[in-house]
Amino acid sequence: MRPSDADGLPDPAARRRVIPLVPEVGRFSGSPGAPGTAPASRYAATAVPPDHPLADFLGDGPLSLPGPPPLSLYIHLPWCLRKCPYCDFNSHERAGLGDDGHLPPGLEADYVRALIADLDAALPLVWGRPVISVFLGGGTPSLFQPQTLADLLSAVRARLPLAPEAEITLEANPGTFESGRYAAYAQAGINRLSIGVQSLNDTHLRALGRVHDAAQARAAVAEAQRHFERFNIDLMYALPGQELADLARDVDAVLALQPPHLSLYHLTLERNTRFFSQPPEGLPDADLASDMLDLILARTARAGLGRYEVSAFARSEALRCTHNLNYWAFGDYLGLGAGAHSKLSFAHRIWRQTRWREPQQYMTQALAGRAVSSQDEVAPQHLPFEFMLNALRLKDGVPHALWAERTGLPPAHLATAWRKAAARGWVPDSPFPPRQWVTTPRGFDFLSDAQELFLP
Ligand code: SF4
């Protein structure tokens, strides 16, 4: 944790600290404003005594945010039937699941009690702020019984104001017992599913170590269509042994299911996975993977699914994922659960937090009011990279005013890197600051290189 007096000012006790009272909160305004000027603050200012328990968060600091960004809630449910060999998420194989796939009832209840204790302890940091989206991610959240998730969402609603149209997504796997629960999940208040289909080819599903087959995946999508207007299908490509023709069949088969939203991921070998230490045979080389991406882009466009982010495609603007859009627009999020991350903004600071990663340790610590294992204030010099790492993933970018709204810094902090990117043809060569922080099509192809220009 960052000490409260580590911002370089000589006399912390003498500093005037400012409490942000409950501000007017809305989605990003997008109003252009005058470049280089600070928008009027929506935070009300009151002096914070240096010994205030939240002085590290609420006190004076290097930033001047005009108001808090939209707030999302992420809840991590960490167990899976089996650990997939490519997965580097904080997911834990759970032995002793019943044939019905239920987690032991005591474990579900204990974990939810820990989540609620975690939320209770975090409330002072987000007091009064409406939540625009909730994402129940994992792991395999659909291992939890619908009634448990209904109770969890009731507890959230009792503590945080959910926006009237809040998107509430559940990550689900297509196993038989799980898709049998989709109707009950909808009744529990979940209004969007994200289904981990990955492929509709049984050979490739086996190569990925998935526990479901293609028939189960199709049945799960059909069940989702019956109960959810909004759902996402996750699909992977560049799989072991996959040829271009295999991928074409997979993409066509998925598009025939008419998903409102599609997320497409290149299989990567992440550290700390079985695939990293024992790479599977037959992985497509870079040229083939590039041809695969071209094929995906052509066929999704023909099917009316618009690519709005590096990996995300939606049938219409209304069907885009609100939760992920908030990440990419550098919004705030409170992460609850084992290993969850948070990014929280205050009038003069932005903080990041991480929860204990191992589920049992998390539960013990959360019930004792200590769910956070580490936290740091984001240094202003890191904000250009953090902001562009997210914003440039969006195909249309974000309006220039968003930089000052979300970081409390003037656009001048981006000028040097932006001009370098423009010189390489990665962003439009227009007068600075541009109307939109966005790449050119060429810059979108060299996204990592373009983002790295903003490193301190
Ligand atoms: S089901 Fe998902 S979260 Fe679980 S191990 Fe497989 S990839 Fe990871």
TrEMBL record:
Output this protein's name: Radical SAM family heme chaperone HemW
Q: What is the lineage of its organism?
A: Bacteria, Pseudomonadati, Pseudomonadota, Betaproteobacteria, Burkholderiales
Species of provenance: Amphibiibacter pelophylacis
